[in-house]
Amino acid sequence: MSVKPTKAMVLAAGLGARMRPLTDKMPKPLVPVAGRPLLDHVLDKLADAGVSEAVVNVHYLPDQIIEHTASRTRPRVIISDERGQVLGTGGGVVKALPLLGPEPFFHVNADTLWIDGVRPNLARLAETFDPSRMDILLLMAPTTSSIGYGGRGDYSMLPDGALRKRKEHQVVPFVYAGAAIMSPSVFADAPSGEFSLTRMFDGANEQERLFGLRLDGVWMHVGTPDAVGAAEEAFLESVA
């Protein structure tokens, strides 16, 4: 049983501190890579996946993002304004839930970047998501083939896609690529105010309802100014 999300949550409220000086006067989602802002790369993929409305949250230099997305129609952008508060990755979703509706939705970080393989990864997520077994389905990138990532990974993955969180001092083969499908029901008991989305991941994991899908293509971790050049090089190679 698959789903066809028509709504998405795009996290664009971060401070982008590690991207300074590029983010001194520009929010990280608007930093250009391969000729387009990071945010537009994400919104384009959502449009191609059939999303008609994307809720974009804003906090740091919000007016730039609001102005940039104002004329967008594919998908239509709805702003969730967090300029007066810091809600974190989890609290931002809770605030936006009334705009997202009761059905499973795409959840994408505004600064995630990947090159699709044979088939678009968001379409593959929608085909794989099974609400009878899953509350959250994460797009998982292999650490060994990702660009700009040097960490220990986030999860190991069982043959059926079930995820197991990395233990301290452990090295695991997959890192969360910043794109997912989520059921709004996972936020039923969510706290108010600021909290991290990892709390929801951990809760779904404890219920054995957190699953992953291996990314087909190349994922790029654009976390610092130096990583922008590596990402652009990968894009050029992909269209050569």
From TrEMBL:
The keyword NADP does not apply. Keywords: Magnesium, Nucleotidyltransferase, Transferase. Residues 8-138 form the MobA-like NTP transferase domain. One of its GO terms (molecular function) is nucleotidyltransferase activity. It holds the Pfam family NTP_transf_3. The keyword DNA-binding does not apply. This is MurNAc alpha-1-phosphate uridylyltransferase. It comes from Bradyrhizobium erythrophlei. The lineage of its organism: Bacteria, Pseudomonadati, Pseudomonadota, Alphaproteobacteria, Hyphomicrobiales.
